[in-house]
Amino acid sequence: MKRYDWDIPSIIDELTEENKKEILERWIKEQRDKKDKESLNSYKTLKKSLKSKILMLHRTTFYKQKIIRKYKYDYLKPIITKIFIKNKWIYGSGKLLIILATNNIYINERTLRHYMFRWGLVTLIRKKKRKSEYKNT
To answer: At 15, phi and psi to the nearest 5?
Structure first.
């Protein structure tokens, strides 16, 4: 269904000040529930300080941008993920290290473990159940 916005200015003219306040109040409450900076960025005429007040965020927090970090071994992510999924989420960093070494890729095991944790590659291992201790009485 196509949306027609040509009548919006006439609707706004018909609204009383009280109606405008009510609509704006409801809209601001909805925006605060979302707590999404990106939704307010589409409003070009609003100042950033006003946007931060609407979302109840500190102004400096509103100005911060997401930092995309690049790490040394990020190029290995697709290779390791492919091996990891191929082996049904079973191989840990030790076996993956051996497989990578056969492909002439050398990386420290501890470093690989850190990267696997960062990428969310966790092995599916069942935890051992502890047997209850018997008291000698």
So the answer is: -70, 140
Query: What are the counts of helices (DSSP H) followed by strands (DSSP E) for the chain?
Result: 8, 0
Q: Which token pair is 96?
A: 């993956």
In the numeric block, which tokens belong to residue 63?
A: 């100005």
Closest CA to 99 of 86, 88, 85, 83: 83
pLDDT digit string, tens, across residues 57-116? 777 776 777 788 889 999 999 999 999 889 888 888 899 999 999 999 999 999 999 999
Find, among 21, 59, 49, 52, the residue nearest to 36 by Cα: 52
Q: Which positions ≥6 away from 107 have C-beta within 8 Å?
A: 73, 76, 97, 100
Cα–Cα dist 86/95, whole Å: 13
Taking only the tens place, the pLDDT of each residue in 121-134 is 988 777 778 777 77
For residue 20, what are its two tokens? 């405008």
Q: How far is CA 116 from CA 14, 76, 80, 122, in A?
A: 60, 10, 8, 7
